[in-house]
Amino acid sequence: MSTDTESQSTEVESGTETETESDWETTESESESPRVPCLRNWLELPRDVTASILLKLGAIEIIESAQKVCTLWRNICKDPSMWRFIDMQNTGDRDMPYCLEKMCRHAIDRSSGGLVAINIEYFGTDDLLAYIAERASQLRRLQLATCYDISDEGLNEAASKLPLLEEFEIYVGSTSKDAIEAVGRCCPLLKTLKYNQQGIRDVFFRDDEEALAIAQNMRG
């Protein structure tokens, strides 16, 4: 009699244990189900972090794209601190749907006089240089690339209004040694002067005059 009772008890306990294990055991299909990625809201980023990210973009990308994303980004893009460095890098495509010089002037205005460095490619003119000189007296670095519409006279006039200029770079243009000499005389703090005409002149042409002008007018 007692033997039957013990047998029934064992069966009940065994059944209970089996049911308990099935409660926490997961099936193979459940363990392999994909996890949903955690999505982050970019608008929740701290303002300074967002600004640092946007600063990685060029001026054209900011004005034509980034500032149009949302109100927050537009407000950040209008902050003068975003325009201490203006990079107008572009492909030189004449069929662009916007005026680069007008866009550049707009970027300069946003700097509110705090512009420190600017890079202009393909569209520089005497008028634009004059605009920069009048509104960016704190400019430290000026880079001009393939700006054939900038004359010696225009460059000389701008240089005379940029006494704090420390770096000046010209890549492919119509600047002569006279203009280079003028820049050296007008900018007493100039530390770097790069002049590169490679790619548009005969391979046997040597820029001896320009090199001599740089050597004679670099202070220190």
Automatic annotation (TrEMBL):
Coiled coil: none annotated. Residues 14-31 have a biased composition (Acidic residues). Residues 1-33 are annotated as: Disordered. Pfam families: F-box-like. PANTHER family: F-BOX DOMAIN CONTAINING PROTEIN, EXPRESSED, F-BOX_LRR-REPEAT PROTEIN 21-RELATED. It comes from the Eukaryota. Residues 1-13 have a biased composition (Low complexity). Residues 39-86 form the F-box domain. This is F-box domain-containing protein.
